[in-house]
Each structure stands twice: as C-alpha cells, then as structure tokens.
Design goal:
about 500 residues, mainly alpha, two-stranded antiparallel sheet, two-stranded antiparallel ribbon, globular
C-alpha cells in the first residue's frame, strides 16, 4: 500500500534538480543535503574512468574495422561477385559480422549509458552528452557504426577538462569530423596537389570545399549572430586546406589514416580571415580556432545553448551572463564554465522546468529504478564481433532509434534539438508509454513492487504526495511504473 511522506517546506532541497542536471538519484543513493555542492563536485579537472568494465576499443582499432567493411564491400566484393547476387549477399553478411557492423554501435551505447545509470559523475555525463551533440557527427558512411562512439569518448569527453579552444581544435581535426564534413577534399586551387592534377589531367584544378569551415563558424563557435559573411567562410576554408588523413606508405589506408597537415593540399600565400592576417601553413587553423573560441559571440552562443539544454527553451540574459563572465575570467576553461552553468540551473530551478529528451528520459528511468540496463559488461566480453548478436544487446539501439533520439544517428550536422516542441508529438509520447513498459521488464525482481515506487518518488520529487496519490489509483506495480514515467512531473525536470 502506498503512503505519502509529507514534506517539510523548510527542508525543500529541490529534488528535481537531481534530474535537471543529471538523471535523478539511484534507489540506494543518499539524498544530498546541498544539491549544488553535489552537482559541482562532479565537475573535476580529471576525467573519471568509465563505469563499463568490459573491453573498450580505441578509435584507431575501430577505423581498421571501418576500412574492412567500407572498402572490401564496395571495391572487392562487388567486383568478385559481379554476376553472383546470392554469393555477394552471403559474402557481405559475413564481412558485416567479421567487422562487427552490428556490434560496435550497441557496445558504444552500453558504455555511454552505463555512465548515466550507474556512474559516479552523472552531472559530468549529462554535460558530455551536450558537447557530443554540439560537435555532432551525423549518420554518414557507416561512421555511426564504427567511429562516432569512439570519437565522443576520446575527443569530446577526454577534453572536457580543457579550454573550449582546445576542445574545439581537437574536434575540428578529429578523423571522424574531417570525414563527416568533407575537409579531406578541401584542396587549395593553387596547391601543389591541385597543380599536379591539372598538369596530369588537363582539367580545372581542384577547388576548395567550404562545408567544414561553414559548420565550424555556424554550429561550433560564433554562430550566425556574429555577422560572419560568405567571404569569411571562404577565407576560413582556405586556411583549413591541407588537414586530411595521410598515409604515405599504404595508399589503400589513405581514407582511414591519421589526420595530419599536408602542405601539398594547402592553399599557399597570404591568409586573411575576418579582416585579420593569420599564419601560413600548419599554424593557420589553430590560430583561427583561437580567434573564434575567444570571440564574444562564441561565448554568448555556447552560454545560451547550455542554458537551453539545462534550464529552459528560451534562456534570458540574466541566465547566460554568469556563464559568459566565468568564461571570460577563466579563459574558457571548461570545468569553470560548467560549474557556472550548473549554478545558474540551480538558481533558476524553481522558476523553470525543462522537457526531457527521449534519451535523457530513458536514462532517468534507468537510474532512478536501478534497472538492469544497459546489458552487463560480460555480454559484450563474450561476443565475437558481429556473429550471433544477442537481441538483448541490440535493444539499446532499437529503443533510441524508435524514440527518434539515437545519439549516433543524427541526420543533420547541427545534432538533435533540445526544444520541447520537437519532442512532444503524440506519436513520440505514445512510444514513451511503450518503452516505460520495457523499463519495468528490466527492473530487478525485488524492485517490482509498490513500496519500491514509493521510495523512488520520495527520493526524486518535491511533490511526492501528489504523485503517490495518482499512482495509488492503479493496483498493479507495472501499471504504476508506466504511469509514473509518463507523468508531466517526469517529462519535465
């Protein structure tokens, strides 16, 4: 039988704050007496190890599998089985398994979701999700299967204790980003390579590709509010020529090799950008990123996005100003920027509620109920790449795709929206009902009772009486679970 614990208003500690900046409290977690200290203490200069204890593959390892899948499939198998469709299908399926195409994305989700559901730094994890979406890699050329997860682990997460300038630079020259935004084909028209190509083919020399430069300005740093022009985009693209994968010894590995600055692709001559002269050659891009990262519009843009992510769809200047000031005071040192954002979220907690995206909602349910999710590490340890994929292992990907919020399958370079209106369609709400049932199935047997839900409610909500009264209308624990995680109080934190 459910009972209601009355709340002493003098001890109001804003329990929804634990869900706003993280994923709620686990059943065995003690309620912190000071939520702000609890949250900011997780913003450390040292990035903690992953909670996932199984084998974690490096990006370089995964790039090898990517190469096998993409190039053996497209070049070798199609040629070998040109007149044998059945044979080609069989060979392709074997290659798919050998290179783990169906495995890596599920493994990466398990690593990612463990940090939210059982990790000791859920606030840092939620900020990691923010930056992964900010510097997103969209679903292109099988990147989501092989390298996007590793990119978010090794490039984004490991640089969250650096300055924004450092994070932006590492994200810009990361192999996955270079491939995603086509900078590998950004070749200076007057470069050595372009001239050689022209002499060889008697055709027009290569031209620049502005895609990466445009997104670096629009999405990653200063935003359109800065007033940059098309000329600025072209200038930045010229500076970015030469940054591409390079493997002089093994041409077959060219596309999947490490990214290096290659002068033969670089546009020679004077480098002008935003009315300023920048260094030639290799030093040009770091200097340009330094300029952009320290631009007033960049600080304001990132502060606005952080507030929109944590607090409300439409942040105000009194929310963003403290973050901007912390950025200026600390030269963009991200731990201090993060602490400022968390403090603002705390100060405005009772005034605003933030609608939870599907992934945050799902992981909130998992952490608050201590669900058996994601699959245990040993399931992945015993798995042989793509063979015999356990349906239980594949479920994370299924759920995220079905709810429209798979973190590695963004369709656009600007990532997923965090605006409420984009997640409140009747269809998506119905899917949350469906997957709330799945969440109950994943509960431990001892947690499938009404007393357990009383515990969850009292630990994570400031209005437990109201919620428990609603839940009491349903006798079955499964019905109470589904109802609880589809209440407006849960959808919004």
């Amino acid at each position: 039988m459910l009972t209601c614990k009355s709340r002493d208003n003098k001890k109001h500690i804003m329990k929804n704050f634990f869900r706003k900046v993280a994923f709620g409290l686990k059943p065995d977690e003690k309620i912190p007496s000071d939520p702000l200290v609890w949250a900011t203490s997780q913003i450390t200069d040292e990035i903690p190890d992953f909670s996932f204890k199984g084998k974690i593959y490096s990006e370089k390892e995964l790039r090898k599998h990517y190469k096998e899948w993409v190039f053996n499939d497209r070049k070798k198998l199609r040629k070998k089985f040109k007149k044998d469709k059945k044979g080609y299908k069989s060979a392709k399926n074997k290659l798919r398994a050998d290179t783990g195409q169906k495995f890596w994305r599920n493994l990466e989700l398990a690593i990612r979701h463990k940090e939210a559901t059982i990790g000791s730094h859920p606030v840092l994890t939620k900020l990691w999700y923010f930056w992964g979406n900010h510097f997103t890699i969209s679903d292109k050329d099988f990147l989501s299967h092989y390298t996007t997860g590793a990119y978010q682990r090794e490039t984004i997460r490991l640089n969250m204790n650096q300055t924004f300038e450092k994070l932006a630079h590492e994200a810009t020259v990361a192999w996955a980003m270079i491939h995603h935004l086509d900078n590998a084909v950004n070749v200076g028209p007057k470069s050595e390579d372009a001239k050689a190509d022209w002499r060889k083919r008697k055709k027009r020399p290569a031209t620049i590709n502005e895609n990466h430069a445009r997104e670096l300005l629009e999405l990653h740093t200063v935003s359109p509010n800065s007033g940059y022009t098309q000329e600025n985009i072209t200038e930045l693209a010229m500076i970015m020529t030469g940054w591409a994968p390079n493997d002089e010894q093994h041409k077959s590995l060219l596309e999947t090799a490490n990214v290096k600055f290659q002068r033969k692709y670089h546009q020679p001559g004077k480098k002008l950008f935003w009315g300023k002269e920048f260094p030639k050659g290799k030093k040009g891009l770091p200097a340009a990123i330094k300029f952009l990262a320290n631009h007033k519009s960049c600080r304001e843009f990132i502060a606005y996005k952080l507030c929109r992510y944590l607090i409300t769809d439409y942040p105000t200047k009194d929310m963003t100003d403290p973050i901007v000031k912390a950025w200026e005071k600390n030269d963009g040192f991200l731990p201090e920027v993060h602490k400022a954002a968390i403090k603002v979220a705390f100060e405005f907690n009772d005034k605003h509620n933030k609608f939870q995206t599907p992934e945050n909602w799902w992981l909130q349910m998992g952490r608050m109920t201590d669900a058996k999710w994601p699959p245990s590490d040993d399931k992945f340890d015993t798995y042989q790449l793509g063979y015999g994929l356990d349906p239980y292992q594949a479920k994370p990907s299924w759920f995220m795709e079905d709810m429209g919020h798979h973190p590695y399958l963004s369709k656009q370079p600007n990532g997923y929206s965090d605006l409420s209106e984009d997640w409140m369609s009747p269809e998506l709400i119905i899917r949350r009902l469906i997957y709330a049932r799945q969440g109950y199935i994943n509960l431990k047997p001892d947690n499938k009772n009404n007393e357990f839900f009383e515990k969850v409610v009292n630990k994570n909500f400031d209005n437990p009486d109201k919620i428990l009264k609603i839940l009491k209308q349903n006798e079955k624990p499964i019905d109470r679970h589904i109802l609880l995680f589809n209440l407006p109080e849960v959808f919004r934190a």
